[in-house]
Amino acid sequence: MKITFLMHSSFLVELDNTYLLFDYFEGERQPFYKTNIKMPVLDKNKELYAFASHSHADHYSLELFKFSKEHGNTKFILSKDIRCTASFLEKHNIDSRVLDNTLFVKPGKKYEFGSVSFETLFSTDVGVAYLIECEGKTIYHAGDLNWWHWENESDLEQKNAKRHYQSYLKGLKGRKIDLAFVPYDVKLNRAAIWGIEYFTGVANVQNLFPMHFWRQFDKVQNLKEKYLPNADCKIFNITKENEQFEL
Fold this sequence. Notes:
There is one protein chain. By secondary structure, the chain is α/β, with parallel strands linked by helices. The protein is 15% helix and 31% strand. It is built from 5 helices and 14 strands. It has helices spanning 67-70, 86-91, 155-168, 194-202, 223-227, and strands at residues 2-7, 10-14, 18-22, 47-52, 74-79, 102-105, 110-113, 116-122, 128-134, 137-141, 176-183, 204-211, 234-235, 243-246. The strands form 2 sheets. The protein has a 7-stranded mixed β-sheet, with no helix packed on it. A 7-stranded mixed β-sheet has the order 7-8-9-10-11-12-13, covered by helices on one side. The longest helix has 14 residues, at 155-168.
């Protein structure tokens, strides 16, 4: 597998015959996240599956559909909260025929679409998380499913956030996951690591990439050594956008 960290929570996973693209948005058009992302050159003989976990602007934009022109062999999997009708697409100069290759999904369901099968998990924010089976690999992308512990919230809100996160991960107990993308939101301060820590204690994950860390690359270095020395998985250090990794 080849993994490219594009930005924020967006990754491209390359398998032997398939690409999986997660939570892509056009960064340079987002005022809160200006950057220049360079998509790798894609093999047009491989299928591209573009996943969007929810409608927030740091996880999805209409620019995602440009791959239907650039790559051609593309299928889109979008959370149901993303409003995307034919008339809306045409209004934004996007060929509405992309909807013929688009699947809208709900949380807590199982799907088969083309050559991929996957489950959706409920999110502690909006949309879904994805657990995907493809080419013999199990790949998890959390979207915004995370242990959101905000210090300015009430004790009850914090308890509910913990309860919901732990409840939504119950189905992953003991599951072997080859590759996982999990939020490490530095805005949570001391609680930033809690979601990853709990996740690695539930699932049998082999390789984990932190995400959603708002370009603060210094804060995601050596997470395993600093916070999770007993975690039985590899946690990758991401140092820049467009960085590639081989597994």
